[in-house]
Design a protein that fits this description.
- The protein is an all-alpha fold.
- The protein is built from six helices and no strands.
- The protein has a domain at about 40-124.
- It is about 85% helix and about 0% strand.
- The radius of gyration is 17 Å and the shape is elongated.
- The relative contact order is 0.16.
Length: about 120
C-alpha cells in the first residue's frame, strides 16, 4: 500500500537510500546487533505475558493483542513473532541512522514493558 501512495521518484530515492545505508558497515553491524537484541526482548515479552496471564496476576491491556489472544488462542505468539520478523527485516533493509534511532527508542520502550510484566508477576 505504501508503494502505491508515494511517487515512483520517491520510491527510487528510498530504494537508493536503503542500498547506501546497507553499504555502511557500521550501520549494518548496529542494525544486526539491535535486531538480535530486539528479538530477545520480544521473546521475553511473550514469556512474561504468558507467565502473568496464566498465573492469573495479570491481563493483557493492549486491546489488539487481547483480541488476538481471545480469538486465536496461542496463535497470537506466532503472529507476534511474525511481526517481529517483518520489523527486523525492515530495519535490516534500511539501516539508516534515523531508522536505527527510532528502533532504539522502540526497543527501550519494549524493555520497559518486559520489566513491568516481571514486576507484576513477581511483585518487585
Amino acid at each position: 500500500m505504501v508503494w502505491s501512495i508515494i511517487s515512483s521518484k520517491r520510491r527510487e530515492t528510498l530504494s537508493k537510500d536503503a542500498s547506501e545505508s546497507r553499504l555502511n558497515e557500521v550501520n549494518l553491524l548496529v542494525a544486526w546487533t539491535l535486531v538480535v537484541f530486539y528479538n530477545f526482548v520480544g521473546i521475553a515479552d511473550i514469556y512474561s505475558t504468558l507467565l502473568g496471564v496464566h498465573s492469573g496476576v495479570a491481563e493483557e491491556v493492549n486491546p489488539v493483542l487481547r483480541a488476538a489472544m481471545d480469538n486465536i488462542g496461542h496463535g497470537w505468539v506466532a503472529a507476534k513473532l511474525l511481526l517481529q520478523g517483518v520489523i527486523s527485516f525492515m530495519v535490516l533493509w534500511f539501516p539508516h541512522r534515523v531508522v536505527l534511532g527510532i528502533f532504539i527508542a522502540a526497543i527501550i520502550f519494549n524493555v520497559g514493558i518486559v520489566i513491568n510484566n516481571f514486576q507484576i508477576v513477581y511483585g518487585f
